[in-house]
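Exercise 7 asks you to align residues with tokens for two separate proteins.
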Amino acid sequence: MNMKTNENEGQEFALTFAAAWNRLERRFDSSLGAIKGISLAEYRLLRALSIAPKYRASRVDLAHAVGLTASGVTRALRPLEKLGMVSTVKSQRDARLAMANLTSAGQEMVSDASGVLDDTMASILGRAPKLAAKLNPITELLDSVGR
């Protein structure tokens, strides 16, 4: 019986966490879309490039950073490239080794969008003081999930 309770607690946690993430993602998408014209998924790609050495990364590295496939990253980068936020640096020897490069416009977008996310999170945490007080330990725990 105790085993069943632990299984139910784990399942309940997973479902509650998924629902909470869904609400956060919608809120971030709404804020970023209304103010900066990008989605959270696009922001995550831009941010991953912003912390990469020389603002450059392979599609495979970006895929690992944001949880997409390499082909999913390629598709997601196309509109960002059209907007001038990302450029592609092709390998002279192998086209599969093309690198995504964050442009100065992309760097500016990351900076601006980070402020939007900070403001959105401040609003969310303002209504959840218990969560705000435990943010660092919760972040550390969540970072260990699935590793």
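Second protein for Exercise 7:
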Amino acid sequence: MLRVTLMGNLGSDPEVRQSQKGLAVAMASVAVNQVRSRPNGEREESTEWFRVRAMGRLVEIMQRLAKGTRVLVVGRLDIGHYQSSDGERRTSFDVWADDIVALGAPREPGSHAAPTAGTSRAAADGSATPNRQAISPASRAAGPPEPPVAEQPDDLPW
């Protein structure tokens, strides 16, 4: 099993469909940007796209997100291959989410400023604390949300 952690922006509003067994499945694309420096000092930026799928409690959480929202996704990577309409063999990357954290609000159209990390994390039980809420099925078992913590520049969640 391939486990991944992605941090990127939703490239589409989440879409909910029913599986053949009648279960709700939420799906959205996530763009992950990478910036690399070449030996000559030039910066090279590339974007990889992942299709994120979620079931159960995470469907409700994904429905509250919108295109452009910065998210952190932890889940199982499923790599598939398909033939495009022009006959080219392509690879798809699907992540079946175990945990989703909203790291900020969607960007305003025309805005190039990145959302502030930690501005919104929604709790699995629907409760919220200022500037910090947990989105995770695991947090439901953890009990009530923890009190707000003073944010410090070196206090990173990873």
